[in-house]
Write the structure tokens for this entry.
Amino acid sequence: MRFICVFVLFILVSLVLPAAAVTITERPDAIVNGQPIFVTVRDLPGNSSFSLLVQADCAVQPNSEFRFQMSQFVMPFALKKSSITATLSGTSTNRLEVMKESTIVTVSGQSRDGQFSTTKHYDITPGTYDYFRLSGTSLPTARSITAQLQVTGTTQGSKNSEISFVVEGLTAGTITIAALVDGTQALYKNIPIGGPEPSPAGSSVPAASTAAPPPEQWRTFTSADGMVSITVSRAEPVGFLMVPAEDPARGTRVLSGPYTLVPQDTYFSPPGRIEFRIPVGTPAEGLVIASHDRGNWTSLPSTIGNTTVTAPVTISGTFALLGPLPANTTIVSTVTTTPATPATTIPKTTETPPATPTARAGIEPARLLLLAVGAGCAVAMRKRE
């Protein structure tokens, strides 16, 4: 009897105590061209949603050739149902090359409005890629370019590992690395190349104030697939990471996204503006931008244009473009998320106050039941003694 009670108590304690949280760190804090970057992963849960963004921002001469390369890219674990998205901004011509062992994949094309993006879907196996190379020609008016590589998928393999790669082709600029695990930011870091992090376009950002800064101090950042962008008044880059779509309210569907903005928990003062492109062939009626937090969707005051939908944002978070389900669509599952506010067209942008953090709930009823059973076992053991 004593052995059984001890065994039951051990199981209950294992269930009640939280599992170790995943930690992802990066080193070094600054690099020079040709130096490796290491991303260490600890306690990564299996079958979790994993997203990694590597973004390079560097100054260029107008109408000049450039090259950003990540050589000897070590991927220590597998990603199932995964995708690789590469994008280039501030460019006119573009070329993506990926080499692994004896296989080389090349994608090239012209930019549209100074941006080029391509996405490939396949399972990523562990191993070493010889290189990921992004190159091309800058716009005749460009003074800087942005190159992004995003990898997203479901993890399989070792929970403790290390991703590494060597940066080549850049003598100055900034590398930004962000990682999400199940939608939660586990890493966000800016790494200067060849010296202190440069100021973008030679501008400086004044102290926070309620007055809007001059237009030249606003910066626009775009997702890797070009479907969403955000315009904010701040110097640090804003990155977009695709996360798994969750069911919105009954009668609506996710048309684009969700995207998580990184770094997370960043406030925008004055408020920024998020803009989604309306997918080709999608009716504009009923479209709305919504934020997602703790399983709930909240509609933002959205302005519907000819090709885009915009809304004000005051804090980084997870956002998606929602729209009504097509007519005669059969709903086969019950959605438990909080219904979103019906889509409306707002003639002007209004400030949305930051969301108030919700206090954590207490111990769940299931855990209370487990603790009660454990206490019963302890009493039984004491009586037998």
About this structure: Confidence is low (pLDDT under 50) at residues 6-19, 196-211, 331-373.
